[in-house]
Design brief:
This protein is of the alpha+beta class. The protein has three domains: about 10-310, no CATH class; about 320-430, no CATH class; about 440-495, Arc Repressor Mutant, subunit A, CATH 1.10.10. It has helices at about 10-15, 65-80, 185-205, 245-260, 310-315, 320-335, 335-345, 350-355, 360-370, 370-380, 390-400, 410-420, 425-430, 440-455, 455-460, 470-480, 485-495, and strands at about 15-25, 80-85, 90-95, 105, 115-120, 125-140, 140-145, 160, 170-175, 215-225, 235-240, 270-275, 280-285, 295. The strands form three sheets. A nine-stranded mixed β-sheet has the order 2-5-6-9-1-10-11-12-13. Strands 4-3-14 form a three-stranded antiparallel β-sheet, with no helix packed on it. Strands 7-8 form a two-stranded antiparallel ribbon. Helix 3 (about 185-205) packs antiparallel against helix 4, helix 8 (about 350-355) crosses helix 9 (about 360-370) and helix 9 runs parallel beside helix 10 (about 370-380). The chain is elongated, with a radius of gyration of 30 Å.
Length: about 500
């Protein structure tokens, strides 16, 4: 990889304003492809989910997927877009082996949704990201380049093509130029993609899993000298597939552009590849303009004309949007902005809500997901919700603590047992013998032994130093392996010593 000159991020921002444009592709979770009846299920044998239509065979005619159109309208409405009364598809012509038709069926000058916005928050400041358009199109196939050091076509010995993905419905969401973010531009880019992902998931139109390619972001970036209105030449970093990488790609390109411009160089309008391991980008190919694709209306598809009453029905059926939902939950849970951000960063909102739905109080659900379970997830390097414990099981643990059958120490052992595959909470309690001991006859002996073993402490308690009883309670807890009811133990200690609590 060639060495790229960079200036510091601070120096870049001292001279230039970053201008961003984000293009996000979302694979819709429909059962069949955009223009044919082939399955979209993941994991099938290569080239087993294809037909004459998605392979572009002569004479095969496409039919628009109605569920994909509905998903597109719902996305447009959630993004505060206008929904076109009439729109149509076009052919975007270019050659690449993963395009079996040698053109992509997309929308060009007549998208289904346009002129919207999405508000995002960074460090307490709200940024409005204006949406240029959201349009329907189809995905390409998958190329696997074998041999070579990079896994890309350059230097590969040969390539394998899988057309199972070719024709899967996509929505491409394109922002208008994002200006005025300054030093927060990379964070705004990350926050926008994160908010968009949450919105897509809330709508139920896609799982939007970036690591699986279900949601990908192209980061367009240019710099303009501070005080000037004209935008600079942009670069487009393609197919960035994580929130962290969106931020890193934007930051790197700001530094790279600034270095080129400060040395009197010229920015090349091109696509670039992002490298996760180093957080850098490298040149791809010179970027085409729209006219290079020779767009023309798709002759084999009729226009799409969403009925106004149907659009309004969809608008009325939209779920509570993520930002409003977070604000409501923050108030209901009584959390500070910092605490709510921690819950959001941990991906804990959904498991907490599901645990509450299973009967646990919100504060207890948050305590266990953000405490013991978050700690274990960090130690194992897994996502919080990828751990083998369900919200219903966490709710049962909360119930056992609330009824006095478990204390916090024992509850942590129960969580350990569930995660180890030893069964549900009640099975782990029974198998490990973890229930709290609160029976007076069982505790009395342990209390008497603790008093006999600590006569000096007992005398202090008798003389009125009630706080000293904590040492005796601790001794009983140790003797019972943490299974004693600490509150009842203290009562018994004070009774034995003739002291009022």
């Amino acid at each position: 990889m060639s060495v790229v000159n960079l200036v510091s991020f601070e120096d870049a921002l001292a001279s230039y304003d970053p201008v961003m444009g984000l293009e996000v592709h979302v694979e819709l979770g429909t059962a069949t492809k955009m223009f044919c009846g082939c399955s979209t299920a993941l994991g099938a044998e290569p080239n087993s989910q294809v037909c004459p239509t998605c392979l572009g065979m002569p004479g095969a005619l496409p039919v628009v997927n109605a569920a994909a159109v509905e998903s597109a309208v719902r996305i447009g409405l959630a993004l505060n877009c206008e929904i076109a009364e009439w729109c149509r598809f076009a052919r975007k012509n270019y050659f690449y082996p993963d395009m079996p038709k040698n053109f992509q069926t997309s929308q060009y000058d007549e998208p289904i949704a346009f002129d919207g916005h999405l508000d995002v928050e960074v460090d307490g400041e709200v940024f409005r990201v204006d949406i240029e358009r959201a349009h329907m199109e189809e995905d390409t196939g998958k190329s696997s380049h074998i041999g070579g050091a990079t896994g890309r076509i350059h230097g590969a010995e040969y390539s394998l093509l899988d057309y199972n993905r070719a024709g899967i419905p996509l929505i491409e969401i394109v922002t208008k130029p994002i200006t005025g973010a300054g030093a927060k531009a990379p964070e705004v880019a990350k926050a926008y993609v994160a908010e968009l992902r949450e919105l897509i998931r809330a709508l139920g139109v896609s799982e939007a899993r970036m690591e699986m390619g279900q949601m990908r972001c192209d980061v367009n970036l240019s710099l303009r000298p501070i005080g000037q209105e004209k935008f600079g030449t942009r670069s487009e970093t393609k197919n960035v597939n994580s929130l962290r990488s969106v931020e890193r790609a934007a930051r790197f390109e700001i530094q790279r552009h600034a270095a080129v411009l400060s040395e009197g160089g010229t920015i090349v309008q091109e696509t670039r590849h992002f490298h996760e391991d180093e957080g850098t980008t490298t040149s791809g190919r010179v970027k085409e303009e729209a006219e290079d694709y020779r767009y023309f209306p798709e002759p084999d598809l009729v226009p799409v004309a969403p009925a106004r009453d149907w659009v309004e029905e969809l608008r009325a059926s939209l779920p509570e949007l993520p930002r409003l939902r977070r604000r409501r939950l923050q108030q209901e849970w009584g959390l500070s902005d910092k605490d709510m951000q921690s819950v959001l960063n941990a991906g804990a909102i959904e498991p907490i809500l599901e645990t509450v739905a299973a009967g646990a109080p919100a504060d207890q659900a948050r305590k266990w997901w953000m405490g013991e379970l978050a700690r274990r997830a960090n130690e194992s390097g897994t996502d919080l919700t990828a751990q083998p414990i369900t919200p219903a099981q966490v709710a049962r643990i909360c119930a056992l603590v609330a009824e006095g059958s478990l204390n916090d120490k024992l509850a942590r052992q129960v969580i350990e047992g569930v995660l180890n595959g030893e069964g549900g909470p009640d099975e782990v309690v029974a198998a490990r013998g973890l229930a709290v001991v609160s029976d007076d006859s069982a505790l009395g002996t342990a209390v008497d032994e603790a008093i006999a073993a600590n006569p000096g402490v007992a005398d202090k308690v008798r003389s009125g130093k009630v706080a000293a009883a904590g040492a005796l309670v601790g001794a009983v807890m140790k003797a019972t392996r943490g299974q004693a009811d600490a509150a009842r133990v203290k009562e018994l200690v004070l009774e034995r010593l003739g002291v009022e609590g």
